């Protein structure tokens, strides 16, 4: 019985994939941690659902991070660099309401979901926005990668 159990454990371990995530080849992994105090005027608007703050501090993301309150006590944070280009002069996205646009090719992304809204019909692989972790503890939103 022990032998059968050991075989089952080995087989189940071998049959599991790592995580099924396809890494974006255009954007490098950057490690960072950034606290946003909701008591500060710069971040206080994040107490309203649908509110967005752009954080362009050095060392936060590649080219900055968009943070949105997506629901009651739910936050999402997305990289400000277009996920379909190597970072360059035109790849930092600009916000227009609840969307951001890449000026390199006018690709538009939704800030609630990070999804590409207007994919070209070329058959090429396009990536959604790179998402970072955003968690709230009291009056602090912690954004990390």
UniProtKB/TrEMBL annotation:
UniProt xrefs under PROSITE patterns: PROKAR_LIPOPROTEIN
Keyword Oxidoreductase carried by entry: yes
This protein's UniProt keywords: Dioxygenase, Oxidoreductase
InterPro entries: Rieske_2Fe-2S_sf (IPR036922)
Molecular-function GO terms, alphabetical: dioxygenase activity
Protein name: Ferredoxin subunit of nitrite reductase or a ring-hydroxylating dioxygenase
């Amino acid at each position: 019985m022990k032998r059968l159990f050991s075989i089952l454990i080995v087989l189940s371990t071998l049959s599991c994939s790592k995580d099924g995530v396809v890494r974006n080849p255009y954007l490098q992994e950057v490690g960072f941690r950034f606290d946003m105090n909701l008591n500060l005027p710069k971040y206080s608007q994040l107490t309203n659902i649908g509110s967005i703050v752009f954080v362009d501090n050095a060392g936060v993301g590649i080219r900055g991070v968009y943070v949105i309150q997506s629901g009651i006590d739910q936050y999402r944070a997305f990289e400000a660099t277009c996920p379909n280009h190597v970072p360059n002069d035109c790849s930092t996205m600009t916000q227009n309401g609840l969307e951001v646009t890449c000026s390199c090719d006018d690709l538009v992304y939704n800030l609630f979901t990070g999804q590409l809204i207007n994919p070209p019909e070329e058959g090429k692989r396009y990536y959604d926005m790179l998402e970072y972790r955003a968690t709230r503890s009291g009056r602090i939103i912690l954004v990390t990668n």
